[in-house]
Amino acid sequence: MEIIMIVLAGILFGFAVYNILQKQLLRIIIGTALLSHAAHLFILTMGKLKRGSSPVLTEGTESYSDPLPQALILTSIVISFGVTSLLLVLAYRAVKTNGTDNMEELRGNDHD
Amino acid sequence: MIVAILMPFLIAMCIPFIAKFKYRIHTGYAVFATSLSIFLYFLVLLISGETETLYRYSWIPSLGLDLTFYTDGLALFFALLISGIGALVAFYSIFYLNLEERLGSFYVYLLLFMGAMLGIVTSDNIYALYTFWELTSVSSFLLISFWFTRKASTDGALKSMLITFLGGFSLLGGLVLLHLVTGSTSIREILTQGDLILASDWFPLIVVLLLLAACTKSAQFPFHIWLPDAMEAPTPVSAYLHSATMVKAGLFLLLRFTPVFKESEAFFIAVSIIGLVTLFWGSYMAVRQTDLKGILAYSTISQLGMIMAMIGYGTEAAIFAAMFHILNHATFKGSLFMAVGIIDHETGTRNIRKLGGLWKLMPVTGIISILASFSMAGVPLPILNGFYSKEEFFSSSWDLSADRAFGSDFAALLANIVPYAAVAGSIFTFVYSMYFYFRTFTGKAEKTTAEKAHDPKFGMLAAPVLLVSGVLLISIFPNWFSRHLLQPAANAVYGDAMKEHSIHFWHGFVPALIMSLIVVVLGVLFYITRKYWMGLYNVLPGKLSGNIVYASLLSASENQTKRLNDRIVSGSIRQYNAIIISVISIVTLLILFGTNSFDLRNIDTSPVSLPQSLPELAVALIMIAAAFGSTVSQKKLTAVIILGVVGYGLSILFVLFRAPDLALTQLSIETITVVLFLLCFRHLPEIKRERKEKLSKKITNIIIASLCGLMMMLVGLAAYSQRLFPSISDYFVKYSYKLGGGDNIVNVILVDFRGLDTLFEITVLAIAALGIYSLIKLRQKEGDR
């Protein structure tokens, strides 16, 4: 099962990077969202999968699934939400100010 | 000890504050007092005969990095030279520099240089030596470009910096090799392992690297080209750095390692030839100069070449003579530079064609110049120290083939040629000394200069007068200097086995005297007839010059750098991203394959079996399909909604893998994100058809993306192939209730064990929220741009 999940995460990474390399700002934001999904899945897979019950202490349970990746991912989900929303607003402002959402046209000036 | 060496740096830090009061008291006095007290400290050391002082501060002992200072005869000799000339130059500069100049910066640089120079000569650690060495190059650069509004100054500074840094770099290389060969970073320990170094395979490279360092620093042919251009510096700087001290650092380096190198015949051949060629070329070129400082610059090059040649000889007499000449050169060349400074100050020009007849107007300067320049020429008078050391040079050249046994024929032949080359090189030394003196001080005075020129105030004259009296003192009491200063220094280089040297004016009709006389006679002849042979310069060097090579190298490297920069720094963020991601992927893949990191046999995974695993597999397939769909979709709305499918799929996976908190969070966040996307949509343009993109570009992107995906997969597999450390999760499971008082382990980790992480997470969110708020609310007013 872990191997399947690793492969899935890898494929998601691939799509994410392809989107990030596109011209349009929206595409890039989609890419970063995909990238965070892939990373979360990857981290979860790093703690072993399906090895016990949910990490909530209950009487008589010996084995729990790894709580540490879950804690890390929980933090990460929230932060990636913050990043995505900031990027969205940034894209919105960039389009308003520059009149384009094409990365090739957003190069900055020489020597500034 | 440590105080004396670090004092220049400490005072340098105070200078900017002292410089604020420069109109009340000239900043130079502080520098003068500093250097004088350092000089006195070393003088006391010398007289007390306590030549080995140690100070040790260990910094990183395991890497052999420490700060160890010690003074043997050689270090003490140089330290006295540096601080003594430094004091005189500081005093002289008080009268040379206007109060309007940036005195603060000037004296900071000067002290920086003095401290670095003292560091070079007293350091025992090779890396400390290297650091101080580079520091002298930096301060030299700053001092040459002191008048940075002149283009010639900055060009000269750049040239000197590029050339001396080239040498500094090779010095580092040579020192690292020495460290590797001997396993020690202490110069004294390295010197005890001479046999090991000589036998090592690296020896030739070490010699080449250290020679390169010494030759660039000491302006040896063909690296001498920076020194004449460095004359754009204020004259006190030229006197101090570019004749008396810094350019001698290269000589010092070779002297330091002479105990090892003197056994090597290749070293003898290389250094002697470089030295003699430089001696000849420098003096030959000096006659052609019209700028007084230009003459002195080439003369310095030539004198350095002469000392270099003596170091190359490596015999007792030659090493002693080298020390003697270093001392003498500092006295007469220092006073000549100061005299030129005075002439420049008084007449407003340094062009020798415009000068003449200054003897009547500036008698004191004239006396200084005549003594110093005749000493430089080696005129046989008992009051001129230059003659003594030149005699020593000639006699060591003459005796070379007798004093040293040579293995190869070439070296033996060279030893026989050396005396003739020495004489030939010295003839022009005589010529340019005469040229310098007589063209400036005799003949007709130009009207424009004659009106205002007169001897300056006493203060300005004091330093050169003192230096010239040094010339006389050394000549009258040569043996006092020899016993207390030169002998210990030469002993440190050659070993204690050295016999006592005494210096006499009259040796009888020995070969050295005859050589001196030949030089004088031919020199006078050449000087008188120089009108007839000056045409020679059109043939040699003609248009040949090291400067052409330098200029073409410089412009070529500038062009190439610009081209490279233009190609990489294109301004396209996409391109940067592509480069960064592909480099990361390729390097990681190479390392993973190179170290054979994944081993599929040992992987400990949970079983996959149909139909139990069907839900996971189905969700995985849906997620891949959704990711593909959102990537290729041509409508922004479709793309975002399909992206939501990936997120919801992930939360189902969280459920399946027993992570309830994650599933809940992911569900709510995903929902909010989609809503947010939709909110912004009104303002974002529709996704454009991707056909506009070139096919090759598309394929490149696909390749980069696949590489990155593959890399992540393999990293995951590698992580599963080997578990080096036990997981710390067990700790959390065990203590969640005991320490955290909670049943939900994930929650306890977040708010208790890793509570600070969560605090920062909230901070990040708050910053993002502030960013979003300001992006929306604080827009630029129309017409602001």
TrEMBL record, chain A:
The chain crosses the membrane at residues 6-21, 28-47, 67-92. It is found in: Cell membrane. InterPro entries: CPA3_antiporter_subunitC (IPR050601), NUOK/Mnh_C1-like (IPR039428). It holds the Pfam family Oxidored_q2. Gene3D superfamilies: 1.10.287.3510. It is a multi-pass membrane protein. One of its GO terms (cellular component) is plasma membrane. Keywords: Cell membrane, Membrane, Transmembrane, Transmembrane helix. The keyword Cell membrane applies. NCBIfam families: PRK08600.1, PRK09094.1, PRK12660.1. Belongs to the CPA3 antiporters (TC 2.A.63) subunit C family. This is Na(+)/H(+) antiporter subunit C.
Automatic annotation (TrEMBL), chain B:
InterPro entries: CPA3_Na-H_Antiporter_A, MrpA_C/MbhD, MrpA_C/MbhE, ND/Mrp_TM, Nuo/plastoQ_OxRdtase_6_NuoJ, Proton_antipo_N. Residues 621-686 form the MrpA C-terminal/MbhD domain. It comes from the Bacteria. Keywords: Antiport, Cell membrane, Ion transport, Membrane, Transmembrane, Transmembrane helix, Transport. Residues 698-777 form the MrpA C-terminal/MbhE domain. Residues 123-402 form the NADH:quinone oxidoreductase/Mrp antiporter transmembrane domain. The chain crosses the membrane at residues 6-23, 30-49, 69-97, 104-121, 127-149, 161-182, 202-227, 267-287, 364-388, 417-438, 458-477, 505-528, 576-594, 614-632, 639-657, 663-681, 702-721, 758-776. It is a multi-pass membrane protein. It is found in: Cell membrane; Membrane. Belongs to the CPA3 antiporters (TC 2.A.63) subunit A family. This is Na+/H+ antiporter subunit A. It comes from Terribacillus saccharophilus.
